[in-house]
Write a structure and sequence with these properties.
- It is built from 15 helices and 14 strands.
- By secondary structure, it is an alpha/beta fold.
- The chain folds into two domains: 129 residues, Response regulator (Rossmann fold, 3-Layer(aba) Sandwich); 252 residues, EAL domain (TIM Barrel, Alpha-Beta Barrel), CATH 3.20.20.
- The structure holds ligand C2E and magnesium ion (2 copies).
- The site of one magnesium ion has 4 residues, from strand 11.
Length: 399
């Protein structure tokens, strides 16, 4: 037995015969320290007493009494910090939902396994225990910030743009960037927008933030005529009827073509003043500024918006992109969104292209642009040239 296999595993399934088989399979793979339980309740009691003594839990979804979903909910309160594998004889969509739930609870989810369990699949999933380190993950939000801290940050120019490249799916060409704001906090390090955008919206500082991001971004693409710049716009900014003139002035000051700028919109809050938003967005389009419907399909960005607002780009939310190659439900949603974009004659961007399978799927899909960790993470402007050189190499290997 290798050192890596010397950890304790807990298997929960109501079927004693299945437990016996799984125990044998685990033994064959070199995992000898295995506890089993036929009741989720009983397993929880064990975990409450010694939450850190197991490194992996394998749990059946469909059990009488407490089912796997309920178990996941209770697992959180035990302090268990190991990996979770879900097992089910049910259809793949139920397993997918359970997986989404486990991830939403921030559990260290290793994978879902269908019954009958294939030894190779089991081995693969358990290997992830060794590979998965928390390092790659973003730090969870540690604290909230006050409005005065945020104002100071604006004044001290601690808010800087990172840029995430967008590439053409067909050719791989680097065609644009999305500006994603970061707060470089002198003590706390890099802070992500989910920790301060709603604060800025609440205290009516979002216009100042957008302005800052827009001007930095325009400065960055000035002189780069083959690149576009996408900027996230808060709906709040659209209540001011002078907004289109303001944007046009900024674009012309920076010597950038209007069509190089794309404003991304989601309905993160209900539009307070629908009419002025519609007025503004339509006039922006008249002036040839690009308009993109962001996070399409998430409920914040809806069909009604697509009907009413003259968008010329649709961004399929990453929730429908990553994993699309192997998930029929995602494929149905992805293809429907794409075909809607095609029929409306607008460009389609897939967000959340995280791995090679996602990328290969897109290549066969007819989607126009791709954005996501497989291509590049958001980065500071000075890192883009190195990324670009590496991307060209990666493309050669992919083709
Ligand atoms: P968004 O506009 O949908 O931006 C995409 C988010 O997904 C970014 O997170 C990006 O880092 C992340 N992302 C990109 N590729 C991948 C991938 O392959 N996998 C995964 N899991 N994630 C990926 P970020 O930078 O934390 O931004 C979050 C949201 O904050 C943005 O969502 C946008 O709505 C908002 N935001 C960012 N910058 C600004 C800004 O300047 N102004 C306003 N109003 N909102 C902003
Ligand atoms: Mg966006
Ligand atoms: Mg998005």
């Amino acid at each position: 037995m290798s050192i890596e296999n010397r950890f304790r595993i807990l298997v929960i399934d109501d079927d004693p015969f299945f437990l016996k088989i799984l125990r044998r399979q685990l033994k064959n793979l070199g995992y000898e320290d295995v506890d089993t339980s036929t009741h989720a309740h009983q397993a929880l009691t064990t975990l409450q007493d010694e939450p850190l003594s197991f490194k992996v839990i394998l749990c059946d979804l469909n059990m009488p009494g407490m089912d796997g979903i309920e178990f996941i909910r209770h697992l959180l309160s035990t302090g268990f910090d190991g990996g979770l594998v879900l097992i089910s004889g049910q259809d793949a969509r139920i397993l997918d939902s359970a997986e989404a739930l486990a991830k939403a609870h921030n559990l260290n989810f290793l994978g879902a396994v269908r019954k009958p369990v294939m030894p190779a699949v089991l081995a693969e999933v358990l290997q992830r225990t060794i590979r998965k380190s928390p390092k790659g993950f973003r730090k969870p939000a540690t604290r909230t910030y006050s409005v005065s801290e945020f104002l100071t940050a604006l004044d001290r120019r601690e808010l800087i743009n990172h840029y995430q490249p967008q590439v053409c799916v067909k050719t791989g060409d680097f065609v644009g960037v999305e500006a994603l704001v970061r707060w470089l906090h002198p003590q706390d390090g890099m802070i992500f927008p989910d920790q301060f955008i709603s604060l800025a919206e609440e205290f009516k500082l979002i216009d100042r933030l957008t302005d800052h991001v827009l001007l930095q971004g325009l400065g960055f693409i000035a002189g780069k005529e083959n690149l576009s710049l996408s900027v996230n716009l808060s709906m709040d900014s659209l209540n001011n009827l002078d907004y289109p003139e303001y944007v046009m002035q900024a674009v012309s000051n920076a010597n950038v073509l209007p069509m190089q700028l794309i404003l991304e919109v989601t309905e993160s809050r209900l539009m307070k003043d629908r009419l002025s938003s519609l007025d503004n967005l339509t006039r922006l389009r008249l002036k040839e500024i690009g308009l993109s419907i962001d996070d399409f399909g998430t409920g914040h960005s809806s069909l009604a918006q697509l009907r009413d607002i003259p968008f010329n780009e649709l961004k399929i939310d990453r929730g429908f992109t990553h994993g699309v190659a192997s998930n029929p439900a995602l494929q149905a949603i992805f293809e429907a969104s794409l075909s809607m974009a095609k029929q409306l004659g607008i460009k389609c961007v897939a967000e959340g292209v995280e791995d090679e399978d996602d990328w290969r799927y897109l290549r066969g899909s007819g989607c126009d642009l791709a954005q996501g960790y497989f291509i590049a993470r958001p980065m500071s402007a000075e890192n883009l040239p190195i990324w670009h050189a590496n991307w060209l190499d990666k493309l050669k290997r992919l083709n």
